[in-house]
């Protein structure tokens, strides 16, 4: 059974159909990418999955349970956490605090516990701090825990955002254009990082523009254009798909080439 | 003695070695003040400073941690004062019980304000809190049968303990103020260093991101304002009993503005900033009485200069100290090495 199964979801803004009848699924342990030209509706899909937007039609099933139109925190609790296209860390909080906010839903104590510093409180806080440190260390951010998030270099901020999402104990990590604004070297590093996440047992759904990243690490790819799914398949298949090439490069070039051939 | 030491150690867990000595000494000096200075005027000013320290710590929860503006904070202070004052004056209840009702009164005000502003921020929130302040003032002025309207509430009882009545001149109110300020500090600290505090600060930093990390932002917004209201209510109950008379003017818009000024002056989000800010800005008009009306010109200038040269406030800004981890947590390898390295240097 698929971890995430999206059935014909549709989003309408006023008269504009942003996403129409898009279906896809993600299996446990996969890296799945959604690609498409600017304005195709990729981020809208992510916003529907994570509860930022309401779904007008269709269902989103996570581990067999329908989660569409639930509050974002219900969706996080179900096991899906995301990063953002334009990094949205908590800039003047420490690196470790950013991760601890990600762990928020898993830290269990009530207001009286925190007021009177009960045993339960101290135990929970200690475990949370240790978990955050171990997680940051495993992502090579161990030496940065005391730093403020805004002072980190760009690549590390991306990693920290991913760490924060992992801290929620999410089974599926949703990455919204993680390579945006990165130079080829940084993208290369990010690619290795994402592959490592998969090795550690995380399932990843990715939106990405950077073709070198997408083609190299995805198990499967879905292509969206004008709010509709136009292709799906293995990276090699997608790279040859005429419809995809047309969506990305326009049809003019292809037709001219065809005329010349004729 | 040993048990007492252990209890002290548990409750001062968050302090570093230096503060563990400085703070008891500071408290000892503070406790001795009424024996050294017997002037009623002086002790009254100190009590006012304490009231503003509590009020600013209360607003600091909303403005400093959560990053929202409240322009009607005196309304919560007012509710505490009236709940406590009326019960004491009309029903003759002892102060200790009316204090609790004052806290509850402030918390109820916070609940109403919190629900009304749950999904608002920025200038919208500022306007609603301003309106809330005005509404409370209008209710107090016009609900004659309960609040005595513009005549105010008189003969509010003073607290007494084992037959000893607290007054300003015998230092009773001063010591009570110390206890209440300490409670406000401890509550602020307890909230700050927990998942509650992290969630609330995350709301300030990026509300959408906080929401998508599973933080119930609406719940935390309301809870923070309730807690803030309870603290302001505590200050109100104290003021009512100390002054023995309150009316709507004791809690008007000017008070809201003073609280907001001190919070910004002291440094948003800083607990010591609230206390130092209150000491400076409340004692300032008293110290400069010789200047008569010109002192408010100086006061204004001071605030403008502050905003120009130190916009983060006296004590605001980001701490450069390492993050305080719970005891017994294993540090990351990179930092362990660094720590051992520095230790080695000290030995060498």
From TrEMBL, chain A:
Keyword match Nucleotide-binding: yes
Keywords from the UniProt entry: ATP-binding, Nucleotide-binding, Transport
PROSITE patterns xrefs: ABC_TRANSPORTER_2
Example GO BP: D-alanine transmembrane transport
UniProt-recorded Gene Ontology molecular function terms: ATP binding; ATP hydrolysis activity; L-isoleucine transmembrane transporter activity; L-phenylalanine transmembrane transporter activity; L-valine transmembrane transporter activity
Occurrences of domain ABC transporter (ranges): 4-251
Membrane-spanning intervals of the chain: none
Record Pfam families: ABC_tran, BCA_ABC_TP_C
One cellular component term from this protein's GO annotations in UniProt: plasma membrane
Matches recorded under PANTHER family: AMINO ACID ABC TRANSPORTER ATP-BINDING PROTEIN, CONSERVED COMPONENT OF ABC TRANSPORTER FOR NATURAL AMINO ACIDS-RELATED
Protein name: ABC transporter ATP-binding protein
From TrEMBL, chain B:
Membrane topology: Multi-pass membrane protein
Annotated TM spans: 21-37, 43-63, 93-116, 123-143, 172-192, 220-240, 255-282, 294-311
GO cellular component terms listed in the entry, alphabetical order: plasma membrane
An example Gene Ontology molecular-function term: branched-chain amino acid transmembrane transporter activity
Keywords assigned: Cell membrane, Membrane, Transmembrane, Transmembrane helix
Main location (coarse class): membrane
Subcellular location: Cell membrane
Superkingdom of origin organism: Bacteria
One Pfam family in the UniProt entry: BPD_transp_2
PANTHER family reported in the protein's UniProt record: HIGH-AFFINITY BRANCHED-CHAIN AMINO ACID TRANSPORT PROTEIN BRAE, HIGH-AFFINITY BRANCHED-CHAIN AMINO ACID TRANSPORT SYSTEM PERMEASE
Name of the protein this chain belongs to: Branched-chain amino acid ABC transporter permease
